[in-house]
Amino acid sequence: MKLIVFLMSLLAVSGVVATFGREYNAAFWARSSEARAFEILASRSEVPELPFSNRSMREVFETCARVQQSLIQAFQPPETQRAVDESCAALARDALIKNPTYSAAHTILMLSTADAAQGAQALIQSQKTAPRESWNAKLRLREGLSLQSATSPALDAALESDVNFMVQTPAGRNWLARLYHADPASRAMLVRVIDQRPNAEKASFLREVRALGQD
Fold first, then answer.
1. Inter-axis angle of helices 54-68 and 78-98, nearest 10
2. Is the Cα dihedral 98, 102, 106, 108 positive or negative?
3. Distance in angstroms (rounded) separating the CA atoms of residues 54 and 26
4. Cβ(150)–Cβ(113) below 8 Å
5. What distance in Å separates the CA atoms of residue 2 and residue 46, rounded to the nearest whole number?
6. What is the DSSP letter of 32?
7. Residues 93, 165 within the same domain
8. 117 in a domain, yes or no?
């Protein structure tokens, strides 16, 4: 009996150690420098296993998005970019096996594919599962304009919903105004959607646009 209790305790301790190790490795990578995070993603062999906790998973996907949109990534040859994207996509697919409605994983799949139709579908799923979360909404709006070749009513509706969500807060209006200045291709959609909003929101957005134009 004592041996059984001992073995059960040993198994429990081993499980705790394994869980802690996975969480620690993921957190250590997620909080590393952009350059180091990039190196690990590009290597494909040192990418940490997907952690168990939602908080750690979110940190992992935030780091993936940061690297995927970085200047380091932008100046890499196509094969290195694909390696980084596939590392992040593999983590996202693992997360979706555990939870098909995990929005950050859909967002990372959107960033990781070069196929416009697949990117559009991932964006739509991301918006369905996280319609009111600014981190996801910002990434969707940045990426959505590059998916116009796969445009569809569902894609248009998802992007318009994100604009309608973001324009409701001062921080969101400031971010949209910055997008307006940074990406001229976004202007037609932003003007079209925001023109349907209440006058107070429209006026505030225009003030943000003008103020940034004077900087």
1. 160
2. negative
3. 12
4. no
5. 40
6. S
7. no
8. no
One domain, residues 189 and 151: yes
Which amino acid, one-letter code, is at 57? Answer: M
State both tokens at 25.
Answer: 């490795």
Give the CA distances from residue 134 to residues 9, 20, 43, 175, in Å, rounded to whole numbers and listed in that order: 44, 30, 31, 10
Distance CA 168, CA 3 (A): 63
Distance, in Å, from the CA atom of 45 to the CA atom of 66, rounded to the nearest integer, reads 20
What letter represents residue 146's amino acid? S
Do residues 103 and 130 make contact, with C-beta atoms less than 8 angstroms apart? yes
Q: What is the pLDDT of residue 20?
A: 57
Domain of 169, in residue numbers: 134-215
- Domain assignment present for residue 65? The answer is yes
Please report, in tens digits, the pLDDT of each residue of the chain (215 residues total).
555 544 444 444 444 434 557 898 888 888 899 999 999 999 988 888 898 888 889 999 999 999 999 999 999 999 999 999 999 999 999 999 999 999 999 999 999 999 999 999 999 999 999 999 999 999 999 998 878 655 688 999 999 999 999 999 999 999 999 999 999 999 999 999 999 999 999 999 999 999 998 76
> Quick check: is 128 in a domain?
no
